Amino acid sequence: MDGTLLDLNFDNHFWQEFVPQKYAELHAISIHDAKQQLIPLFKSMEGKLEWYCLDYWSSQLNLDIAGLKAEIAELIAVLPHVVDFLSAVRAAGKQVMLVTNAHRGSLAIKMEKTCLHTFFDEIVCSHDLGLPKEHPDFWPIFQARYGFDATTTLFVDDNIAVLNAAKAYGIGYLISVSKPDSSRPKREITHYPAIEDFRDLLPVA
């Protein structure tokens, strides 16, 4: 979801600037010192379910992470042509599922802001399955619970580790997003077909 359907600028700003600011205020330290303390903590949880868990970080940092996200919810934005693509897929009669590492608390804030939930037949949070999408055991668990034909499935994600796990499981069509954050340069993606925005997947008029 984040960096695929939604502009990753929100999350990058939140974790790299806003949370350090609030942490610095809480501990009466400089933002620089706050970042020096927080960056190793964040790095240690990358790729783990805890990294995506608002409850975990609220406990670790003694901050109301969900509440802080709500404070700057105006920065939440849908990436270009996402709605066009989802509308076209729905019109084609395809089953559309959102499979996200986002915590339910974060998901609720973002769906309220964007209303993208109306496009999906199912919304699945990795927290409900107990593993993040990049874990090799995620997809077998997902298959057992929801059932899908991996060979005919199109899966789009901005996270290369997630795409690698999906490829190892045998998902047939994998696409990366080369510009997940609108405020940052386009990334060079070498291992997967990449789109800059979802217009690249729409039929040519």
From TrEMBL:
Keyword list, A-Z? Hydrolase
Gene Ontology MF annotations = phosphoglycolate phosphatase activity
Q: Which InterPro entries match?
A: HAD-like_hydrolase_sf (IPR050155), HAD-like_sf (IPR036412), HAD-SF_hydro_IA (IPR006439), HAD_sf (IPR023214)
**GO cellular component terms, semicolon-separated:** cytosol
Q: Does the keyword Hydrolase apply?
A: yes
- GO biological process, alphabetically ordered: DNA repair
Q: Which domain of life is it from?
A: Bacteria
Q: Does the keyword Methyltransferase apply?
A: no
Q: Which PANTHER family match?
A: GMP_IMP NUCLEOTIDASE YRFG, PHOSPHOGLYCOLATE PHOSPHATASE
- Tell me what this protein is called: HAD family hydrolase
